[in-house]
Design a protein that fits this description.
This protein is mainly alpha-helical. It contains 10 helices and 3 strands, in the order ααβββαααααααα. Strands 1-3-2 form a 3-stranded mixed β-sheet. Helix 1 crosses helix 10. Bound molecules: zinc ion.
Length: 245
């Protein structure tokens, strides 16, 4: 874990006002080809700096496999073996390629900081909880029907619990992934201020409680304020990695 700047009250209230006055998130309609091209172009721009930063950090996974999901919700994820999945919804809602680059850089941040290993421990806990809950229901079913429902119900429960558990990174890990993302953009010559609009879009979407949005990522004014402070620090240090906590 790196030492990250404290969130300042002034930055937070600015971000709150900004989210409140922002318009509703706009979804564009994009062809499959445009989705692929945008993701590839964004990735090409950030990959060299991202790889360099990952090696400087020396803790996480620096060989990544990218997948596009046809899911239209505004989300992306980092999983085992360097897997990074970006929903097409990210491209549909992004105002420019810099915003898409930020989302990819954030997921790379989870990989580079080795959050996925912790996430997998969370997944094990989630799987256990799911199995216990649905296993109990299964017992009733098998009692009534006399067939072996318990096992399959417990298995289904384990899968559901696992799916929920898999995406639970801590708030601190999310902030660290954002910091690394800002650093990746900065070193790639992308202005972090141009990418930041996506955080406002996400905060706005999350405030409106639109379905399927960002169930796995915090999206609020705190995240925007944290981003601004990360960017200020990165500019002041000319793109150095922060010290370890
Ligand atoms: Zn995240």
């Amino acid at each position: 874990m790196h030492r990250l700047p404290e969130i300042d009250g002034g930055n937070l209230s600015l971000a709150q006002g900004e989210v409140q006055s922002a318009g509703a998130p706009q979804r564009r309609s994009v062809s499959d080809q445009e989705v692929d091209e945008t993701l590839n172009a964004a990735l090409r721009r950030i990959r060299p700096a991202a790889t360099q930063i990952c090696h400087e950090m020396r803790v996480g996974v620096c060989t990544w496999q990218f997948r596009v999901s046809s899911n239209r919700s505004m989300n992306a994820s980092a999983g085992a073996n360097g897997l990074i999945v970006v929903n097409r919804g990210i491209v549909e809602y992004a105002a420019n390629e810099d915003e898409v680059a930020m989302v990819i850089a954030h997921e790379i941040g989870h990989q580079a900081a080795d959050h996925v290993a912790t996430g997998r421990r969370n997944q094990a806990v989630g799987a256990l909880v799911g199995a216990v809950l649905l296993g109990a229901l299964g017992t009733v079913a098998s009692y009534n029907s006399g067939v072996n429902v318990t096992n399959s119900a417990a298995r289904t429960g384990a899968n559901i619990g696992g799916a929920v558990g898999r995406v639970s990174y801590s708030k601190e890990q999310e902030r660290e992934a954002d910091y690394i993302a800002a650093l990746i953009l900065y070193r790639s010559g992308i202005d972090p201020d141009k990418a930041r609009g996506f955080l406002v879009t996400m905060a706005r979407a999350s405030g409106r409680k639109e379905t399927g949005m960002l169930d796995s990522h915090p999206a609020g004014p705190e995240r925007i304020a944290g981003w601004d402070q990360a960017v200020a620090e990165i500019r002041a240090t000319n793109g150095r990695l922060p010290q370890r906590a």
